[in-house]
Batch of 2 targets.
Target 1
Amino acid sequence: MILVVDDDKAVRLSLKLLLNRNGYETVMAASPAEAHEIVRSSRPDMILLDMNFSRATSGDEGLILLKQIKIFHPDVPVILMTAWGSIPLAVKGIHAGAFDFITKPWDNKMLLDRIATALEMNQPDNAEADSGFDRSFIIGKSPALLNVLNTVERIAKTDASVLIMGENGTGKELIAEAIHRNSNRRNNPMVKVNLGGISRSLFESEMFGHKKGAFTGAVADREGRFSVADKGTIFLDEIGELDLNSQVKLLRVLQEHTFEMLGDSSPKKVDVRVICATNADLARMVTERTFREDLFYRINLITVVLPPLRERVEDIPLLVDHIVASFCAKQSLDLPEVTPEAMDYLKTLPYPGNIRELKNLVERTLLVSDKPVLTAMDFKAQYVETPSAGHIFSTDKNLGDVERDSIEAALGKSGGNVSRAASLLGISRQALYRRMEKYGIKI
């Protein structure tokens, strides 16, 4: 049963017809008082809740009712209905425990998709152990990693937006690929976009496409990333790098599922699942007003936090074996033995660059040593300890602080050599330059 709470009779009738036509049982409430009586005596499967009622426009009644609903039924998903002007109010509702919000007037297909996602996410997890979940390319069996994979398995078949957070080198892109590979969209495109590598001036052209002649140099029509990803998944990496102006343009696509190509005023519909990733502290950026609060709550319906390698050291032997086997096959090298003592040594390192740093160390040792047996001394000879090793991430520091400290420490260790610092951090030189600009770090 879906409870619809709205003081507008036309809205209630429209939703009743739409929901009944799609097989949902509905109950209508015209006021908070009516809704309160219903939730006291029964348990809806979900609730569509307007934020403003006839007696006021502040939204306080909607927020109060939401809190009352959560007292009686804390697990029932609530989707808020709001006009554009009250989106900040809807964000407050998300803070108070709402599942999602839609804007009026709504798109019927989008609303039905949101309802289906909310109901599916609220189902008890009764999947069998052998569910056919494809975790290829993700190596490890530590509790920290398995907890992440359990979440990924549960959310993959929904269309819920996902925000993947974690330090550099933890494998955020692999998790995004696993979500797509196990989703109902797996046979359609997955488009990956590194937002940190797109300049502000090219954002619209890259993401939405352009028509021939839209600007100087536009010699032909070009399809944007969202068009290419239609019916599939779009992965927006480094979402924290996006400037405020581009955030507004992205928000419109996520809210309305429409966009306009440069040079073309007709809106185009798009059906995509959005997965974002960042190593930035977006919550702090919202507080500092460098990241839009409404966009933040739009992209993180589900948040997946990847553990750093130092919190899953039991996975290091498995990762080392995989790296050695893959690299030797690619380089046509004989497969060496890695001694237990060497594995023990590798498990003691702090890895500020996480899996990427481990991969670089192992591959460098394979190339330089060229021995049938690799000992702890072989890895020690190739390991360069950075001062950032002493700045291990904790709850006292956010991801941005850790990243800034790591960059400054690596630049200090390398004597200001950007290429060497990038190698120590396990990232590309271009990525390091972008982060130096982001944090105002100068050589």
Target 2
Amino acid sequence: MRKKEKKNKEVIQEKIYNVVIIGAGQTGMTLAKILMKYNSSVLLIDDKDPGIKSSLDVKLFSFLANKNKGVKTDKFLSILKPEMEKMRIESNSHFNKSIFENSSVHFIKGKPKIISDQIISVGEENFNYKKLVFANGSYYKKLDIPGIQDKMYIDPTQISDLDQGLETVAIYGTNWVSLELGQALTKIGIKVYFVDKNVNPFNDFDDEVEATLKKQFKNKLIGWCLESEVINHQFVSDNTIRITMITDSKQHSIEVNKIISTETRVPNTKSVECPFELFVNKNGAFIIDSSFKMKDQQNFYAIGDVNGLHMYPNQGYYHAFLLSQNLVGISSKLDVYNFSFSLNIQPSISFYGMNKNQIEHSQISYNEFIYEFRDDYKTKLNNQIGKIKIFTNNKHEILGAILIGDKLSELISLLIMAKQNKIKFHKLAWLNLPFFSKAEGIRDAALEYYYEFVLDEKKIKTKTKIKKITKKIKKD
């Protein structure tokens, strides 16, 4: 009798998932993949097929625009949709193969309904769980433009539906999506107008990044309509809209073939039915603490766009890694100063950690170090790496960094590793690296930092003595 009872208990326990993840997109799938390594039983739920959905569109479009520089616009736009679809299918195939061949992760398609803090249902099936994670992302709300047909305006997820022969576009908003998209469109000869109520489209960025962006966006195919209040839309022809605006009390207008809105993206917090209140902030995002735990909930978490902290590319991977540690019992807190962020423009810009304004606001003593990569690196690596700016504290630990150049993932990864492990910046000068690795630039920068800041700290006052020590270091 006891054996039978024990067997029944084991059967019941097998039906309890360690983690239920609502959302099988980039962030949810990444979390499931990490949890596999800890042998956690995971249930993924989504009303769409698992895999990356729309988050790659702008990056893919920018990639294709750069790849097809010089190709006629009509030819480029005709290949856009199949190329994007091919890349998305390949990404999803890789995800599905690496995840669903493992028996500890299951997927069910449908709309979830939370019954209690331990039971969730999809259709007529109920599932027991220990912890639940919202990873259902964000979406673009429909742009409300009275009198304008749907086909005349799109959001960034619909880029692959652009018409052939497009000549002019108005982009509503000047966030990172707008900037990436606008630059990509101008590279294939399309005139772009940026329309925004704000005066400075770069006001969310560090001063150094702002200066670089301003330089890059001085382009005859770019028109700026800043501090502009749109008051009217009117059809001029079947494929042309006149947009009338007021700027500095003066009325003016532009004519475009298409309107693209990047300002209507909101966290997807209303898609799940729940019997109790889930707290959201004024922007509609779930409120979480530094461990991703949702306010007033013991076993509910939220990662990715749905918590609204950082609606930036690739941040979902960082969220997924940190939360996975918490779910398996390894304490890990969200560090909002440790995010890396890249603008997919040419040359690209990556930055992470604290910028100058944040450091000064926090009243932290800091060193500011700027390093221009040498010409021989540009030759050897066949691209212009550009500039690195590093902010360090008095212990020479990295507070933040800005990199301007091309293909910076190796460099930013190395700096993030140094920051997370509190490695002193000048210590990177003695790393062993592969020949002609791009990270050689970091090593040289760290050595220059050593000469400028660390030696000064030792109160070496004469130039002669510094030169002798410098030669000795180089010889060693």
